[in-house]
Input
Amino acid sequence: MNHRISHRRLTAAVLTAAAVSGTLLAAPAAVAAPPAAPATALPAAAQDVAPFPKEGKIVSAGKTGFLYQTGEPGAPNAWMTYDGTVTPLPAGRFFGSAGTDTIAQESPDDTVVLRDMGSDAEPVVMKATGALLGVSGSTLVMYDWNGTYLLDRVGDQDVRRDVTGLPTGSKSFGMPLDDADVFTVTSDGTTLYLVDIASAKVIATATSDNSVLGFAAIAGSKTHLAWYDWTPADDGGHFHLLDVATNKSRILPVGNDHSRPALSKDWIALLDTRTGAGKGKPLALHSLTGDQTLYALDRADEVKPGADGSFLVQGALAREEGVYRVTVGADGKPVTRLVASGGRLPDLALVSQDVPGTFTLDEPYGSQELRWTFNHAVAGRLTLVHTATGRQYTRSSDSSTPSLSIRLSNTDGDGMGLYGGAYTWKLTATETQDVGPSVELSGAFTVNRPTAARDHDENGVADVLVRDPDGTLKAFDTNQLHGIPEYGNQPLEPTVLHTGWNTYTLMASPSERTIVGRDRDGVLWVHKGDGQKLLPRTRVGGGWQVYTKITGGSDLDADGRGDLLATDASGVLWFYASTGDAATPFKPRVRIGGGWQQYNLLAAPGDIAGAAGGDLLARDASGVLWLYLGKGDGTFTARREVGGGWQQFTDLAPFGDKNGDGRVDLYAIGATAGRHYATSGLVDAPFEPGVTLRHQRTVIGSGNVF
Output
């Protein structure tokens, strides 16, 4: 067809004979227009309809055409007939009367110009003080310092009718409405008034119990009122649909979109966002009298009530953007016809990406942002696979913009730091507004994790070691054990370092990526870490059956390496300095002193109180915990009492530096619960009050913790 721009004279509202003769206009039956074009007369293919501007926005729908804004706010308006004729309109603010061809233009000189776009009648200029709020038929809805009023043309006079039943100062909003017989007014956001235009009286009211939103996105007719609401329990939000006759309300869930709905005689049309990414944002048609719900279009952006029970919808179907006329057929199914085309949407495609091949994540605040830009708004799901172990990590983002950003850090997603090493990645990007094929991208990168204290699985985060009763040795990420609220309810995913550790009767971790175990024959073995596993063990030597307890981790001689401590059956404490040589990992033992048989639990967490060397904690039989400050030469100062009540715990383990003060914290674990003790740096009170960990001992097993 030929798309033509009409320069015919701008037409006025055709007044009834009664109005011309001076009889009071009985709104809204004053405007006469040709009957609506039947749906079958509308072209269905994009090439057969008029173009619609990319930034255009429909304003109202009439019998023969519709009013629309040609661009962004402030752009000129135009009228398009359903056969494609476009009539440009002068600059100004325009309103349309729902279901009719009447439009109203507000002028700065306190006049309003009424035009009937379905005829060649001359414009009608009405003198109107205050602000134009909308037009219903040929009746203007106005607001001035005296409140809301109606303005009609009677003969050659403009007649004002004040609305009765409204509180002083009430102001209408939400115009134009879906029925030329009524409009709504709200006074303070908590009460909604439905006004009959013919009588200029309030005929119904509704109240909102939501003090945050009050009334928003209102639609109204003579039979129903609808408005958007939200409560914390909602999955997004919902619409109240009130039957005026029965005063009964229904809840219609819509998600987080509270665009203004539209009402016809039998249906309410809502923009529904609950379907999620990749399923569009369809138009939902809910029956006013039953439970039936129909869906039309893949995406709906604006919906306006039209003539004869139709809706005019701006959106997309089968990737064709434009303006659609939607009705419900005799078979109860939606009938959708394209009236103006905004062009075909290209398929989802990548525009650019910024994914480095190598990056570094350091504890505690290291992060790396991965970025992709597409030609449409997207949601994305990123799957990472660690090459060495096969462990998968997933991250998601619903940006609702073409730019997709996913940040990798030590504490997001499942709460675990990423392993160091090579990864492959796959991103599945799905449109958030339209239905179309997803895009899958893939690649690879390498994560560098700088050495972190007590990190046994190379993920940049300190670990607590646990040997299960079956002999499995696991490293638990302290970010998870700490019970960060976002991740505290998720299952723990420890790194399995080795199996067969039930052959050892004593275990300790004296230095980084080093674990020792004494077997039943008294032989001490050392295991070095490599990535997320332990290398084959190396024999240190025999004769270790003389020891009842071993512990390690504190650097006692200030050489930068953690050392090993052991107590024998007679209560003597012995010091084994680390050499850094895997073949001969310890120097000959040095006697520290006797009397250590009084203690039933030892822990060497490191420097917790600011002394010259690593410190030692010892618990006596009465449950009192004592602190021995390291001098830096392999010896300790006189003990200091930390406090009592520590008999509730069965294990003490270093916990990494969770408060970022440069000192190692303590993890105390008992039969039913674990607690995190942050170090204070004070000699006489080395720990802050304990914080109960979300994950208790029953979660991480009943084995040995060190």
